[in-house]
Specification:
It is found in: Cytoplasmic vesicle membrane; Endomembrane system; Golgi apparatus. One of its GO terms (cellular component) is AP-1 adaptor complex. Its main location: membrane. Keywords: Cytoplasmic vesicle, Golgi apparatus, Membrane, Protein transport, Transmembrane, Transmembrane helix, Transport. Helix content is 57%, strand content 7%. It has 33 helices and seven strands. Helix 15 runs antiparallel to helix 16, helix 16 (284-299) packs parallel to helix 18 (323-336) and helix 23 (395-412) runs antiparallel to helix 24. The longest helix has 20 residues, at 20-39. It is elongated and about 105 Å long.
Length: 733
């Protein structure tokens, strides 16, 4: 056979290909020739063919058929053959293939070779792709080379030892005696760097090693100080800094050794201050060293002044033109803001400026850090900046930004009016992106701000006139108009100039929401309920009756059911309507995740109220409890006990259990406890039932009409199938 072409000629030929198909054809032709040469056991050109195969592998073409040829080259006595063979093994083999175990004996022999370069090849290969089995078999040979006087081999042996420790951590103690002497090496370009890498690996993987090597902190500090104070060294100088790679490695090791240890931290405080103040920041090399210095200062038990210096370095990073440096600074500040809040606050204006950055990652980090900096002193200024950011940011940011503003406003609001204005601003700006719990949370805020009812309903009414596309805002506005519509038409607002609006104009707006294509089913339910509530606040009762009756045949089941219930109130239970549609009392937000948590219901608790005037009469002293048992036939999933009301000495609890022997009947037990010394009077529980439910005839309960529809909405239960009968008993304990 003719001699195969050289690697250089193959590269030149492949580069002449004009299309991918043409290149593929050239590769396939050459691979066929290489296979033929392998079959004929051509030892003369095996090295050349494997080298070409490795180049094709780098281009992404399959080259697995050359694995055994690599092993043959490793077994060769020629250095050129071994070099290509070991390179091929590192590229084509890994520990997942059993073939690699065949080279264990060859590596062992080469580790004991008389030529240092052959030993170096075997160390590189073992450190690159050695499996745990190979590492166990060859660890002793690596440990011997770690003690040799040859700096070339010691460097490679140290790096190979790192791989052995990663694969077989229990062999770590084998390298301990040799490791102690590595730091005394003066050739820091070759030995010190790999020695620090090996020490770092051992300290990260073993607490015992970490404690053992803490005594080396003074020696590491001395090495680092020599690097800083040494003059120009052309061998190790990078952009005017002496061996920055070794400096970074030493700083990383010091961070591990000093974490959680007072003595080690104290020993390295001074050198860290020197590095932080003497390192040049005009080049990226200096910034890398300063960043490692900052991380070390933040992780160890450093002095407060040193931590402030580190945060100031990060603040300077924020002014750097390099986006990567700015991102790293923001991420680091976000990690330290909880422990060094005041120091980070000094850079607040620079952090806020990063919200205007064009880079998406920097804007997100700046937003997260801005929320972490919000406190009671800067809430107004920070919210102004964050609301401006919410107006202009990409849609991907709006949901997180809106949630952050809600949480910050709830925690640090200087006044209720400011809180309400801020939340309304968010709903107006990014209402479509807010979380589901924003509506009930704002409703609760408004309900509890009694003095702001007139102002809030006026603001929300004007917002509805401007825009009805933001559904959460529309839902809150509908709820408020239903609750406080009488304040709106009476013009009682004192916080701003009252507007003149009639009852018909208010009803026109709510009816418009019912027929608007922009309204969701939930929004329509809010609007219908609001109209129903206004029947006790406005004089236009006939108009409201007509609207409610129309939706009794709606194709929306939720809307239809509400309308049917409301029609029943107008007809059969009209005498109860004023009491049932009273204003909501002040609500206390619960921390539970049960059915009564208002934050989990998206505002669907608007149909029900819990008021001490509407509960069963109890006149027992503190030691006694009133209990109502409601036996209801419906499919009920397991619901944990819940506390529905706990205020002013009155505690009301609901428990749920299935009835035996009828598992389809569930018993709801209401425990009402009076913990005060005085008796409670006028304590009535009222509700109403749908027409599908009926009472057994009982003269004991002429005034207790129970509407499970309202009761279950209060409990947060929505998936209920009510049968035709309802059984009620009352026991006084």
């Amino acid at each position: 056979m003719p001699a195969p072409i050289r690697l250089r000629e193959l590269i030149r030929t492949i580069r002449t290909a004009r299309t991918q198909a043409e290149e593929r054809e050239m590769i396939q032709k050459e691979c066929a020739a290489i296979r033929s040469s392998f079959r004929e056991e051509d030892n003369t050109y095996r090295c050349r063919n494997v080298a070409k195969l490795l180049y094709m592998h780098m281009l992404g073409y399959p080259a697995h058929f050359g694995q055994l040829e690599c092993l043959k080259l490793i077994a060769s006595q020629k250095f050129t053959d071994k070099r290509i063979g070991y390179l091929g093994a590192m590229l084509l083999l890994d520990e997942r293939q059993d073939v690699h175990l065949l080279m264990t004996n060859c590596i062992k022999n080469d580790l004991n070779h008389s030529t240092q370069y052959v030993q170096g090849l075997s160390l590189c290969t073992l450190g690159c792709m050695g499996s745990s089995e190979m590492c166990r078999d060859l660890a002793g040979e690596v440990e011997k080379l770690l003690k040799t006087s040859n700096s070339y081999l010691r460097k490679k042996a140290a790096l190979c030892a790192v791989h052995v420790i990663r694969k077989v951590p229990e062999l770590m103690e084998m390298f301990l005696p040799a490791t102690k002497n590595l730091l005394s090496e003066k050739n820091h370009g070759e030995i010190l760097h790999t020695s620090v890498v090996l020490l770092t690996e051992m300290c990260e993987r073993s607490p015992d090693m970490l404690s053992h090597f803490r005594k080396l902190v003074p020696q590491l500090v001395r090495i680092l100080k020599n690097l800083i104070m040494s003059g120009y060294s052309p061998e190790h100088d990078v952009s005017g800094i002496s061996d920055p790679f070794l400096q970074v490695r030493i700083l990383r090791l010091l961070r591990i050794l000093g974490k959680g240890d007072d003595d080690s931290s104290e020993a390295m405080n001074d050198i860290l201050a020197q590095v932080a103040t003497n390192t040049e920041t005009s080049k990226n090399v200096g910034n890398a060293i300063l960043y490692e210095t900052v991380l070390t200062i933040m992780d160890i038990k450093s002095e407060s002044g040193l931590r402030v210096l580190a945060i100031n370095i990060l603040g300077r990073f924020l002014l750097n033109n390099d986006k990567n440096i700015r991102y790293v600074a923001l991420t680091s500040l976000l990690k330290t803001v909880q422990t060094d809040h005041n120091a980070v606050q000094r850079h607040r204006s620079t952090i806020v400026d990063c919200l205007k950055d064009l880079d998406v990652s920097i804007k997100r980090r700046a937003m997260e850090l801005s929320f972490a900096l919000v406190n009671g002193n800067n809430i107004r200024g920070m919210m102004k900046e964050l609301l401006y950011f919410l107006d202009s940011c990409d849609p991907d940011f709006k949901a997180d930004c809106a949630s952050g503003i809600f949480l910050a406003a709830e925690k640090y609001a200087p006044s209720k009016r400011w809180h309400i204005d801020t939340v309304m601003r968010v709903l107006t700006t990014a209402g479509s992106y807010v979380r589901d719990d924003s509506v009930p949370n704002l409703i609760q805020l408004i309900t509890n701000s009694v003095e702001m009812h007139a102002y809030t309903v006026q603001r929300l009414y004007k917002a509805l006139l401007d825009d009805i596309s933001q559904q959460p805002l529309v839902q809150v506005a509908s709820w408020c108009i239903g609750e406080y519509g009488d304040l709106l038409v009476s013009g009682q607002c004192e916080e701003e100039e009252p507007i003149q609006v009639s009852e018909d104009e208010v009803l026109d707006v709510l009816e418009g929401l019912l027929v608007s294509n922009l309204s969701t089913p939930v929004t329509r339910a809010y609007s219908l309920t609001a109209i129903m509530k206004l029947s006790t606040r406005f004089s236009s009762v006939n108009r409201i009756k007509k609207v409610v009756s129309i939706y009794g045949s709606s194709i929306d089941v939720e809307l239809q059911q509400r309308a049917v219930e409301y029609n029943a109130l107008f007809k059969k239970y009209d005498h109860m309507r004023p009491a049932l549609l009273e204003r909501m009392p002040i609500m206390e937000k619960t921390a539970t995740n049960g059915p009564t948590d208002i934050a989990q219901t998206n505002g669907e608790t608007d149909s029900t109220i819990l008021d001490t005037k509407h509960l069963p009469s109890i006149t027992q002293p503190a030691s006694q409890v009133g209990r109502c048992n409601y036996h209801i036939c419906f499919c009920l999933a397991g619901i944990p006990p819940m506390t529905a009301y706990n205020k002013n000495g009155l505690k009301i609890e609901f428990t749920f259990e299935r009835s035996n022997p009828s598992p389809n009947i569930a018993v709801i037990t209401i425990h009402a406890t009076n913990s005060t010394e005085a008796d409670m009077t006028e304590f009535v529980f009222q509700a109403a039932v749908p027409k599908v439910c009926s009472f057994p005839s009982s003269s004991s309960f002429p005034h207790y009409a129970l509407n499970l529809f309202f009761l279950f909405f209060f409990l947060g239960i929505t998936d209920i199938l009510v049968t035709k009968k309802l059984y009620l008993t009352f026991n006084s304990m």
